[in-house]
Amino acid sequence: MEFYSLIERIVQDPLTHARWLNTLSFMENAGARKISACEHPAQVNIIQLKHACEEHRHAYYLKKQIGKLGSGLCTAYGNDELLAAAATRQYLHALDIKACKYLKKHFTLTQEKLKYAAYLFVTYAIEVRADELYPVYQDVLTRASSKVMVKSIILEEEGHLEEMVSQLNGFSGTWHKHAENIVQMEKELYDAWIKAIIHEVEIPDHA
Question: What distance in Å separates the CA atoms of residue 61 and residue 171, rounded to the nearest whole number?
Answer without folding.
Answer: 32
